[in-house]
Amino acid sequence: MHFTSEKILDGGVVEREFILGEIPGILWTSVTATEPAPLQLLGHPGGLGRMYPRVLGRARNAVAEGFAAATIEQPGSGDRPVSAAAEQARIDLRQAIQAGGPVDDEIVARLILPLVDQAVPEWQATLDALLELPEIGGPVGFAGGVISVAVRLAAIEPRIAAAILFAGSYVPRAMFEEAEQVKIPLHVLLQWDDEGNDRELALDLFDAFGSEQKTLHANMGGHTGVPQFAGEEGNRFFARHLK
Prior knowledge:
Elements lengths: L1 E8 L3 E8 L2 E8 L6 E6 L5 H17 L3 E5 L11 H16 L5 H26 L5 E9 L2 H10 L3 E7 L8 H6 L5 E6 L7 H10 L5 E6 L8 H15 L1
Parallel strand pairs: 4-5, 4-6, 6-7, 7-8, 8-9
Antiparallel strand pairs: 1-2, 2-3, 3-5
Helix pairs in contact: 2-3, 3-4
């Protein structure tokens, strides 16, 4: 991991951009921290430049609550190499949604499963590097999407102690068996009127999780309409499980 920039933001937040191999990312910590902080990994749907304002808002909240926060760019997004197969699957998915009929699981699997296979090891490598830093301790939580990436990571990575999942993307049926292996505490956010999500699929996925402690927080509104209080409840969830 090589840090490429550092700046102090309002509120005493230190923002450092880094490169891990060919993976760009950002780490946020508190300028006043005196001991290693528990860590939130912030997932997003890709295109970190476009997503930066929203991810930064989440990172600020995390740091204000005593956490460090970090994110990385998704495979195939930003300046990372684009997969022609993924782009075709994305076109096929968009056309299926616009047609108004059911979305074939084969399309979803072509788009999502290769992403999961690549992204999860990258998150694990990032976690390896972050936990070597003296300002980062544990435990570790994962927050955000793509939800299938979070499901795989929560199922196989023992260092993830709790997760906040954003039910805002299609999930291949093959992921449901992996969801049954997830045993950590979960807080799942669902936008009830999300135009780009299959609500029934999201509810089925929630039902499939093997966690004894799982909460579904559903709110009215579209994909980007998550109310502020839902994020505040997420901070309380991590405070319970990571501190």
